[in-house]
Write a structure and sequence with these properties.
mainly alpha, Alpha-lytic protease prodomain-like, Alpha-Beta Plaits, 2 domains, three-stranded mixed β-sheet, 8 helices, binds zinc ion, monoatomic cation transmembrane transporter activity, membrane, transport
């Protein structure tokens, strides 16, 4: 459940697990809502089904990204994963603002408390929250382990859903047991602000990837690995970009000018192999040799 061949397989697993969970939660909440005659649960059920949409996006964009290079796309299709993450990030940003608006509106208007949440339907809602938290942790782990932005942005969505649902339960309980009103609105404002902040951060990070921002930490790592090669006199212009979770590296090495071409080529091959071995996320290395 946690080990996959590559990042694309991990993304596929995350998407499939999320879709199954969201469809199952839709069925459970819809049936419970109808049986318990709870409008709130039925509304939640339909919102929950729409949550499967971003996971469907993960599935589609990851599938496109997994295609091998072809004539039209000699660099492969990995950018589809970055583009998909960017779009899902923007969507989360918008959903965050929607919840923020909802919270502010709830604070300003007299709203009828949805009592149908209490009792048996509360149990269904609490179970939903725990399943959503599992969904979040799973997506987050795969995102971290496989450096997948698609998994990370989907994880953020699961987190938002879990928190928003939890906030309603906490807010209503506080009103019911301690007669503290409007806590659900106040907490919704807090949670949506958090997601807007995290969503903004995520979108900014992915925008940087799409802009081919250099990866300084990887550059430094490459530099220290290259220092082990005694034949290399100088290393310069290390450039690292990320395409669909993989690194593409370009760099210059200076070699003695009377060195034989076959020897220079041998060194370049060794450098390439060593870099790929030590930093497995590196997919391609282009080396330019300078005579010194
Ligand atoms: Zn949602
Ligand atoms: Zn193509």
């Amino acid at each position: 459940m946690f080990k996959f061949k590559d990042v694309r397989e991990a993304e596929k697993a995350e998407a499939v697990v999320s879709i199954i969970i969201n469809v199952a939660l839709w069925v459970i909440r819809l049936i419970a809502g109808i049986l318990l005659n709870s409008i709130a649960l039925i509304t939640d059920a339909w919102h929950g089904l729409s949550d499967a949409l971003t996971s469907l996006g993960v599935l589609i964009f990851s599938k496109i990204a997994s295609k091998p290079p072809d004539k039209e796309h000699p660099f492969g299709h990995g950018r589809a994963a970055d583009l998909g993450s960017f779009l899902i990030g923007i969507m989360l940003f918008i959903i965050g603002f929607y919840f923020l608006y909802d919270g502010i509106q709830g604070l300003m208007t007299e709203r009828e408390i949805v009592y149908s949440y209490l009792g048996l339907s509360l149990i269904v809602t609490v179970i939903t929250i725990f399943i959503k938290i599992f969904n979040y942790l799973y997506a987050q782990k795969l995102g971290k382990d496989y450096n997948s932005n698609l998994c990370k942005t989907d994880a953020l969505h699961h987190k938002l859903d879990a928190l928003v649902t939890a906030v309603v339960v906490v807010g209503l309980s506080m009103y019911y047991f301690f007669n503290i009103p409007k806590m659900d609105s106040i907490l919704t404002i807090f949670v949506s602000s958090l997601i807007i902040y995290e969503g903004g951060e995520t979108v900014y990070g992915i925008a940087n990837i799409l802009m081919d921002k250099n990866f300084e930490d990887i550059s430094e790592e490459i530099k220290s690995i290259l220092k082990e090669f005694k034949d290399i006199e100088k290393i310069s212009d290390i450039r690292v970009r990320s395409i669909g979770s993989y690194y593409y590296v370009e760099l210059n090495i200076s070699l003695k000018k009377d060195m034989k071409l076959s020897r220079a080529h041998e060194i370049s091959d060794k450098v390439e192999d060593e870099l790929k071995k030590r930093i497995p996320q590196i997919l391609e290395v282009h080396i330019h040799e300078e005579p010194l």
